[in-house]
Amino acid sequence: MSAAFAGDARALLLETFQAAVAAADPLQIVAQHLPAPHAGGRTLVVGAGKAAASMAAAVERAYAGKATLEGLVVTRYAHGMPTDHIRVIEAGHPVPDESGEQAAAEILAAVQSLTPQDRLLVLVSGGGSSLLSLPAEGIPMADLKATTRELLRCGAPITDMNIVRKHISRIQGGRLAQASQAPVTTLIVSDVAGDDPSAIASGPTVADPSTFDDALQILRRYGAEVPASVQSHLERGARGEVPETPKPGDALFDRVDNIMIATAHGSLEAAAALFRQRGITPVVLGDTVTGEAREVARVYAALVREIRAYNAPFATPVALISGGECTVTLPAGGGASKARGGRCSEFLLSLAVELAGMPDVYAIAADTDGIDGSEDNAGALADPTTLARAEAAGMPGQRQLDAHDAWALFDAIGDLVVTGPKRTNVNDYRAILIL
What residues does the MOFRL-associated domain cover (predicted)? Predict the structure, then answer.
């Protein structure tokens, strides 16, 4: 271990993850971005996402005694928290369900009741695409669920998934703003690479540059087989038989203010600051890293090997930090029916396999929302002993990677990172510490 750092590497990685999450904590950051309390008319607060409940609580705290609030937000199951005036409903994620559909219908109806003298405050965060699910006319909720599962299975990146979602929704792709006669202020916690507001929660109050034809091309590109109702709706839209989502330049957006309040880059910088305090040089590799999780890990492993062999392009001790959202493509036909975990644990296991016990290399990969994929962990930790300990526990690394079951391996050796829901989401946090 480098003499420049004599601390506990694993503990430091956990601290930096906590710093990244804290930088996106709505209870700490929402108040500074809120408009002045509305003096006349109603103030309706609606929202959707993994941070929706904590954002709503932050609004109530900031406006206490200054404004009369009403409204409804929808968040993922187990992500709720107590509020006084803004109702919180929990619903399904990443696959939508009827609870989310009912909440979205209530939200749309409430927004449609507003007048120009009222104000609409919208709270948007990652996960909102599935939580704010109100299928277009003629598309049953069962078909929306099936479409979501298929897009997840085929490994479509979130931006492409959301283009499809916008065009089979009555509320996303700017349609929520279109329904409001009142001025709209939207606070956004970004969970997408590049922080494109039209992609976050499928942009309910943001102009949508994508088209029905784009959605159809995405389905073809990934070989996604969707229900007939979805296919028919998209084809009718491409023919001009269904109105497009509102586009950039539409006058309706003159009364809409979309404000980005937390981003992946901000969280990476918070982690980088902590590494600097501990005498370790942080290198931010980017907040827009996408691609197949195991392949991204192989690229990172090549960089680690270069640093370890030649102390270049970065001298040790160094921390390689990145954010974004990778994907895990499962085989069609149920070939990975025992797959457990998510993109963070798969990235980390692939990295461990590639590095094969390389000394003085430690890593963390965890989702800032506290949930990595299908289980209840945020992610996992890896160190030079990971593969050996896993082998001793009957969990060969390559076998578990091939089965897309990294969770079982990290669970067996006690290296899962379990935080519970963090009630925010600026996507994944990855840090590789080379001493």
Answer: 13-235
Distance, in Å, from the CA atom of 404 to the CA atom of 391, rounded to the nearest integer, reads 16
Cα separation of 233 and 118, whole Å?
Answer: 34
Whole-number Å distance between alpha carbons of 334 and 348:
23
| DSSP element (H, E) containing 331 | none
Task: Measure the CA–CA gap between 392 and 218, rounded to whole angstroms.
Answer: 44
Spell 274-309 as b/e; 16+ CB within 10 A means b: bbeebebebbebebbbbebbbebbeebbebbeebbe
Task: Report DSSP state, residue 359.
Answer: T
Domain ranges of the chain: 9-22+264-434, 26-134+169-210+245-262
Residue type, position 25, single letter: D
Mean pLDDT of 166-194: 96
What is each CA distance from 389 to 129, 394, 408, 409, in whole angstroms? 39, 9, 13, 9
Interaxial angle between packed helices 141-153 and 158-166, expressed in degrees from 0 to 180 and rounded to the nearest 10: 160
Q: How confident is the model at residue 341 (pLDDT cuts 50, 70, 90)?
A: confident
| Nearest Cα residue to 122 out of 178, 165, 164 | 178
As given in the structure block, the two tokens for residue 200 are 């976050």
Q: Which CATH class is domain 26-134+169-210+245-262?
A: alpha beta
Mean predicted confidence (pLDDT) in 126-144: 95
**What single DSSP character describes residue 360?**
T
Q: Which residue, chain included where needed, has tokens 């003085």?
A: 360
Q: Is the pLDDT of residue 335 over 60?
A: no
Average pLDDT over residues 107-118: 97
Whether 114 and 149 have beta carbons less than 8 Å apart is answered as no
Fold of 9-22+264-434: glycerate kinase, domain 1 (3.40.1480)
- Judged on CB neighbours under 10 Å (0-12, 13-18, 19+), 392 is exposed
- Sheet with 256-262, side-by-side order of all strands: 86-91, 69-76, 43-48, 119-125, 184-189, 256-262
| 178 pLDDT above the threshold of 90 | yes
Angstrom distances, CA of residue 194 to CA of 22, 62, 289, 296, 369: 20, 29, 10, 18, 18
- pTM listed for this prediction: 0.85
